[in-house]
Amino acid sequence: MDPANETEPPPPPFALDKFHISQEYGFLLPDPQTELPAPYGPWMDLARSLPHLIATRQLRAHVHQAPQLSTAQLHGHRDLRLARLVLSFITAGYVWQDGEEGPAKVLPQNLAVPYWEVSQRLGLPPILLHADLVLANWRRRDRAGPLELGNLDPIVWLPGGESLRGFVLVTMLVEKAAVPGLQAIAEAAPAIWQPDRETLLRALAQLATALGAMTEALRLMHDHVDPDTFYTTIRLFLSGWRDNPAMQAGLLYKGVSKLPQEYSGGSAAQSTVLHAFDAFLGIRHHEESSAFLRRMRDYMPPCHRAFVEAIQAFPPLRDLVLSSGNEVLCCAYNGCVTALAAFRTHHIAVATRYVVTAAAKTSRGSLPRLASPSGPEQRGTGGSPVLRFLKSVRDATREALLHV
Fold first, then answer.
1. How far is it, in rounded angstroms, from Cα 275 to Cα 290?
2. How far is residue 403 CA from its own chain's centroid?
3. Residue 89 three-state SS
4. CA 324, 328, 332 angle in degrees (round to 5)?
5. Which of 158, 289, 330, 373 would give a disulfide with 392, using CB separation of 3.0 to 4.6 Å?
6. Helices (DSSP H) in 30-75: which residue ranges?
7. Would you say the C-alpha torsion 340, 303, 293, 239 has a positive or negative sign?
8. How far is CA 123 from each of CA 25, 70, 116, 126, 272, rounded to the nearest angstrom?
9. Cβ-based neighbours of 16, under 8 Å, separated by 6 or more
10. What tens digit of pLDDT does each residue of 198-230 get?
11. Angle between the 179-193 and 317-324 helix axes, to the nearest 10 degrees?
12. What residues does 153 pair with on adjacent strands?
C-alpha cells in the first residue's frame, strides 16, 4: 500500500436510507397510506368526490361548508404525506374549478391554514407538486400483485379519467425504473472517493441500463394518455401561480399571509431522479436552464434535495474518468450520458405531442379551449418555456460526452 494513502480519510458513508430513499422504490413513498385518521373524514370525502365536484362546479361551495380541522392529530410521515396529497388536490381543484379564465384568487382559511401547516412540517411549498401527484399517489389494486400498470390506481383523482390515471402511473413507473440507477450511485460513491475502476464500471453499466428502462417506461405515456385530454383538462390542474398569465398576482392563503404567494406548478423538473443523475455525471446546464432547475429543488422533499447536494460534494466523476485515460471507463461513462440524452430526447417528443401540438389544435378551434388567449400554451406546468428548456437540458447533456 502506498504510505501516502494511509492517512487519507475514509469516504463518507453514502447509504440511500440516510436520505429516505427506498432500496426498492427509490424516491417513491413505499406503499402509501390510503386513509387518514377518522377526524379527517371531511377531507377524505372531498378528495373522493373531486372529479364530480369539479365537473359540476360545486367544489368551492363544498369547501366553504367544510370545517377547519386542526393538524394536531396527524402523526408521522405517512399521515402527513397523505394529508398533503389530499389538500394539494383539493386546492388545485378549488383554484381551477372554473377554468383558466376564472381561477380563485383567495384560498379560504379552512383549507389554507391546515394546508400551510402540513406543508411546513414536510418542508414543501403549499401547491400540488411531483412529490404529491406521483411519489405519494399510487396504490395496488391487489396488494399482493405486481407493480404494473394494470394493478395500480391513483389514490386521489382529478378530472381526466383514464388519461389522468395513465399520466400519474406512467410517471410513477419512470421513477420506479430509476431505482437501480440510484443504487448504482450509492455503490459508486466510495469508488469515486478512493478510485476503484471495476466498481465504477459496474455502477456505470447499471446506471445506463436504468436510464434505458426509464425511456421505455416513458414510452407508455403514448398508449395510456390522450394528448387532447392532457392539454385541455389535466394540464390546468397542474398549473401554478407563478409565471402564469392567468394568476399574475399569485394566490392569497387566507389566515396565513396578508400578501398573495407565488409558487410554480407541478413539473417533471421537480423529480429528484434527473437532478441526481446530472450531479453524478457532471452535466453542466446552460445558465437559464440551470437557474430553473436550481429553483425546482425547492419543490422537492428536503431529504431528497440533500441527496443531490451530497452527490455534488463527490470528487467530479467526469474528471476522474477523463484523467484515468482508460478507454473502457470512458466508454462506460459515455454510455450513461448517451442514455440520459436519449431519455431527454424522448421527453421532448412527449412534450411536443402533449403540449405544443395539442396547443396548436386548440388554437385552430378543433378542441374545446380552456386557456385564455394569453394562456401558457408553450410553457410547461412548472412555468418554463417547455421546448426551449427541454432542448437546452438535452443539448447540455450531449456536451458532457468525452472525446478521447
1. 11
2. 33
3. helix
4. 100
5. 289
6. 41-48, 50-55, 59-65
7. positive
8. 21, 18, 10, 9, 15
9. 22, 23, 182, 183, 186
10. 999 999 999 999 999 999 999 999 999 999 999
11. 60
12. 139
Report the distance separating Cα 62 and Cα 49, nearest Å.
10
Task: Show the cell assigned to 121.
Answer: 412540517
From CA 239, how far away is CA 254, in angstroms rounded?
Answer: 20
Cα separation, 96 vs 158, in Å, equals 11
pTM: 0.93
Place of cell 424516491: 27
Amino acid 306 reads A
Which residue type occupies 143? R
Place of cell 397510506: 33
- What is the number of residues in the chain? 404
Q: Which three cell numbers stand for residue 362?
A: 386548440
Distance CA 226, CA 159 (A): 13
pLDDT tens digits for range 147-182: 999 999 999 999 999 999 999 999 999 999 999 999
Phi, psi of 127 (to 5 degrees): -160, 155
DSSP state of 79: H
Rounded to 10°, the helix 197-219/179-193 angle is 160
Q: What angle do CA 91, 92, 93 make, to 5 degrees?
A: 90
> Which pLDDT belongs to residue 185?
98
| Distance (Å, whole) CA 160 – CA 2 | 63
Residue 220 neighbours by CB distance under 10 Å: 16
Comparing C-alpha atoms, which of 127, 143, 144, 49 is closest to residue 88? Answer: 127
At position 76, the amino acid (one-letter code) is G
Which three cell numbers, joined as nine digits, stand for 399?
456536451
